[in-house]
Amino acid sequence: MSMSGEWEEQIRAALGEIPCELVIRDVDIVLCGAGKVAKGDIAVHRGTIVGMLEHYEAQREMDGEGMYALPGFIDGHIHLESSMLTFCEFSKLAVPHGTTALVCDPHEIANVCGLSGIEELMREAASVPLSVFFTAPSCVPATPLETSGARLDASQLEPLIVRDEVVGLAELMNMAGAIHRDPEVMLKVRAARRVHKRVDGHCPLLSGKQLNAYMMAGPSSDHESTLPEEALEKLEKGMWVMIREGSVSKNMEEVLGGLLDAHVDMRRCMLVSDDRHPLDIRKRGYFEGVLTRAIEMGVEPVEAVAMVSLNPAQYFNLDGFGEIAVGKRADIVLTDGLEDISIQRVLVGGKEVASNGKMLADVPSYRFSPALRDTVRLPPLTESSFAVRTHAEDTTRVRVIGVLEDSLITESLRWELPVVDGEIREDVDADVLRIAVVHRHGKTDSIGLGFVRGFGLNGGTIGSTVAHDSHNLVLVGARKRDMLVAAQHLASVGGGFVAVRDGDVVASLQLELAGLMTTASSEEVSTGLDELHRVVAGWGCPLSSPFMTLSFMCLPPIPHLKLTDVGLVEDFSLVSLEVSSL
């Protein structure tokens, strides 16, 4: 049937001239646009809601008595690659939890594989039973203070940003470039504005006139607020605020709590994940627990639901999505309550795709290009590659990265460390360990070396080829030998996570696609990650997500002290490791 024929048929169904394909009877409908709940029927024909509240004849009926109908959840900011899953496997995990649409920034795979990596994900996304929208990565690499596997300039982004499934320019991490009108940054923003698409922001701790200038450069949202006063200023100045509650960075309690205290209107607020790993989703759900907690904190239930449906749909101009309303796509989540969210059934485009936490729809597999499986190309390494040399004697004072639980922000600490034979040594008793970032894209032999506090390891090394955003190889440990073994292992399997102790690989998780993702199921990834967490916890690590925390030690756009393959970075500048010799 042609589109016009389908449309006319839907109008006839709305008039009651023909039976609708599906009618959900006697359900409590969450009307985000009206800010209320109303009881009645929902009529669906050819994937679209054609009628509500009135009685309709149906080819198939679904009893909604005692249930609430919510619009399908939209994650307005996520990096799919951080789940370590493909879209096929992620959809099997996310959809039963009520998430029916994603807005993905594929800058992780872009930093490794460039445009070809983005296009690969786009092709796969077209085959899954949830709607996937993209934002075009704006900062590949995130800063000039690191070496990525690829670079994307404005000329490469222009043909990408005009595509229908691309809804904007992704988070503009180059704050200085935006504020000081860097020509390349301006070209990227103009490319988005030319086709009337959003520019997502990324501006942690930015305020005052600098925030004004950043907003004038184009960004209209931000997901990096960690303090309520930060989020409040952005809202007051006209930004949309994405409140992040992910697997590592958990900002909802503080930020949302502060906004509630300030009695702000939540219409320009969203709840997003940014980064979620499958073990977290399998244990705690996707948005269900987040919504339940938001409601417990004092957000009105309908308003909370809008923060993961109508609000992101309106921000990104997703016209057919975000609410249960006539003419909208029939993405519907049925729950047995509204204040304590427990999902019973999920419909996507009017078809039931999940029930009681189980996926019903078939999800086709996707064959990835072999080029994505050969991305870990390390320089020649020996144990001495990880030695931190100094001219100091006995001791020296150094900068140390201070890890903060549930935050991407780190502290910039100062610590006195011992010097033995011209080498700065770790201090395991004080939880000051070695950290190394090894270039892994085959372009340079660069290795950044430093020290970190907060991982709590009493021995062993952990390593990862997931290392935001350039995704070089990052290692934290106490012994150079273990760091070498970890690096060699990850190179041999094409990337992933590893835990090494006394020269032996104790646990690992292979991520063979760009060193970021795997074709394995969410169950397999969760089992592997759980084992890694168990091993590392046994070595004294107090962190709930040690490998995701590790992956953010290399992200210079986030304050305060980070390490890249080029060296230590603080406030967008390279800084020395040693502060002074004592």
| Mean of residue pLDDT values | 96
Total of DSSP H or I helical runs spanning 4+ residues? 17
Please mark out the parts with pLDDT under 50 across 5 or more consecutive residues, or reply none: none
Our estimate of the beta-strand percent is 25-35%
Task: Characterise the protein shown here.
The protein has 582 residues and is an alpha/beta fold. It folds into two domains: 74-311, TIM Barrel, CATH 3.20.20.140; 372-581, no CATH class. 27% of the residues lie in helices and 27% in strands. It has 17 helices and 31 strands. The strands form five sheets. Strands 18, 19, 20, 21, 22, 23, 24, 25, 26, 27 and 31 form an eleven-stranded mixed beta sheet that branches. β28 and β29 (568-570) form a beta hairpin. α5 (154-161) packs parallel to α7 (183-194), α9 (228-236) crosses α10 and α11 packs across α16 (522-538). The termini are far apart. The mean pLDDT is 96.
